[in-house]
Design goal:
Length: about 350
């Protein structure tokens, strides 16, 4: 059993993601993460377990007795939502997931309102939060910060789990979990995810959801990935390197309509212009051919779906919103259930919830 408090930060930080995985697991050895930091922590078996648990929690929560049972699971424990980047869905779905399980929540949503503004380091800030709570859910602009904080906490007197709710341009593991959950539910009675084609469109260069979901899809057999973007925003080399190392079929091009015709799921993303080195840089890129509207809808297969991590701008026309293949609204709600499943698992309640009488 690899332990995060038995390896120095320098040594740990140099490992590749798959080698880091055992250091981040729960001590019980069931493979579930203790710290949830990146998509590489989830294999197919874990994904299927989490999706089954999310379905179970969703069902149990329908009755008052069931909801009270769930609320008792983590009653008396507390979670901190530390979000130093904007968020609506990820914040609210984690907060509500906590509440479903009885975790009380508190939050800092702007570093300018915490003692960071007085010069406190990130490490001291997170250690301070850990004094009061049992779980820290964090979103930050810095790549690798959640990982470093996980190491710091595991090496402190009060080790508590960290859950990465979006780290820079890098990873967004719980978004990828909800995306997989949405795909599994959408194709549940139609043969599942194996053998499907998934197209990603938009700002693939800077979209962290794309990197995390692209990896999770490699856990399924024979899934083809298509990356559609203007050349300035095309999928980064590290994502392609993973697909090549795993022998995954992929295409990289700029023809959304061709991709729509060939795909079972089209995953649209917004232009991530908050990362522009100089303001207005992204506006100079011609993105007009990377929008999904009535014409693309007409090309979409009858069983295919449209996804988006949201928020959207104009990359999906509102005329698509009521089409039964538009899955982005359901994706949001799925996020709450899969996050509740993950949090219950982190705290060791997977088996008891799966086996309870509700
Ligand atoms: C995404 C994010 O923050 O990376 N949003 C989300 O969490 N649902 C996508 C985005 O902001 O474009």
């Amino acid at each position: 059993m690899a332990r995060l408090n038995e390896i120095g930060w320098e040594e740990f930080s140099k490992l590749d993601l798959e080698a880091k995985r055992p250091y981040l697991e729960r001590e019980e050895g069931d493979g579930m993460p203790y710290h949830t930091l990146f998509a590489q922590q989830f294999d197919r078996r874990l994904l299927e377990r989490l999706c089954a648990l999310a379905n179970r929690i969703r069902f149990i929560n329908k009755s008052k007795e069931g909801a009270l049972y769930l609320k008792n699971i983590l009653a008396g424990r507390r979670a901190m939502l530390y979000f130093s980047q904007p968020s609506s869905r990820t914040f609210l779905s984690h907060q509500n997931a906590c509440q479903i399980l009885g975790l009380n929540t508190c939050s800092v949503r702007d570093a300018a309102t915490s003692s960071e503004a007085k010069g406190e380091s990130k490490t001291d800030t997170v250690r301070t939060f850990s004094s009061y709570v049992d779980l820290i859910i964090m979103r930050c602009p810095e790549k690798g910060l959640a990982e470093q904080m996980a190491w710091e906490l595991s090496n402190s007197e009060r080790p508590i789990p960290i859950l990465n709710a979006g780290s820079g341009k890098d990873q967004h593991p719980t978004q990828a979990l909800l995306d997989i959950y949405t795909l599994l539910r959408s194709f549940e009675t139609k043969g599942g995810i194996d053998g499907r084609t998934v197209a990603f469109c938009g700002d693939l260069m800077r979209g962290r959801t794309v990197r995390s979901l692209s990896y999770l899809l490699t856990n399924f057999s024979d899934v083809k990935q298509i990356f559609v973007a203007p050349k300035e925003l095309q999928v980064p080399d590290d994502v392609i390197a993973i697909l090549e190392s795993k022998g995954v079929r992929y295409e990289v091009h700029d023809d959304l309509r061709e991709a729509v015709k060939a795909s079972d799921a089209v995953y649209m993303t917004r232009i991530q212009d908050e990362w522009d080195a100089s303001k207005g840089e992204s506006a100079k890129i011609d993105t007009s051919r990377f929008k999904f509207g009535a014409e693309e809808l007409a090309l979409l297969g009858p069983d295919a779906i449209i996804m988006h991590p949201l928020p959207r701008r104009d990359e999906i026309a509102t005329c698509c919103d009521h089409d039964p293949r538009a899955m982005y609204w359901r994706q949001m709600r799925n996020g709450m259930w899969i996050r509740a499943a993950l949090i219950a698992s982190v705290f060791g309640f997977e088996k008891s919830v799966m086996g309870c009488g509700y």
